[in-house]
Design brief:
mainly alpha, single chain, Tetracycline Repressor, domain 2, 220 residues, disordered C terminus
Amino acid sequence: MDMDALRGKLLEAVLPHVAFDGWSHKALRTAAADLGIDEAQARNAFPGGPGELIEAFSAQTDRRMLAELEKRDLAGMRVRDRITAGVRVRLELLAQHREAVGRGLSFLALPVNAPLAAKCLYRSVDAIWRAAGDTSTDYNFYTKRLLLSGVYSSTVLFWLNDRSVERAGTWAFLDRRIENALRLGGTFGKSVGKLLDLPDRIIAGGFGRKARRHWRQAAP
C-alpha cells in the first residue's frame, strides 16, 4: 500500500474515534488497530500527529467540495451564489462528522495551533473563491479571502449548534453573513486599495512599502 492510500485509509478510520478521543494519538492508534496496521507505520504516515491529521481532513474536504462544485452550473450563477454554494457544499460534506469538526476547532483554538488554523482556513476560502472563478491579483484577492474567512468561520460555529430542520437556520444565517460581507467589502476593499497605492514617501517610516509586501506574502 502506498503512503497516500495508507493515509487515506487511516484518516477514514480515525474519524469515528475522534468523537470519543478527540484528534489525538490515541485515536490514531485505535484506527490503526481497526485496520490491522502496525502502530509505528501509522505514526510514520502522520508524523505530525493530531495536527497533521486535522490538516489532512481539511484538505480532503476541500478536494471533495471542489469535486462536487464541478458538477454544478456555477457559471450560470451570480458570484455571491457561487460563494454561498461553496460554503454550503463544504458544510454538507461535513454533516456526518460534526463532532470531529467541533473537536478540531477546539484543538485549533489553542494558541500554539494558530498557524495551522490560519493555514487550513486560508486554503478552504481560497479554494471556494477559485471555484467561483476569482482571478483577481490585486488587493481584492486578499480582501475577498479575509471577508470570506469571517463568513465561513462564523457560519461553522452557527452550524455546529443548529438543530433546525434541514439546517434551515444555518443557510439563512449564511445568506445574512454573505450580504453583510458584500456591503463591507466594497468600502473595505477601496480603503485598502487607496492605502496601498499611496507613495511610500507620504507614509512615514516606509509603511506603504511594508504594507504592500505584507499583503502580497499573506498567502501560505
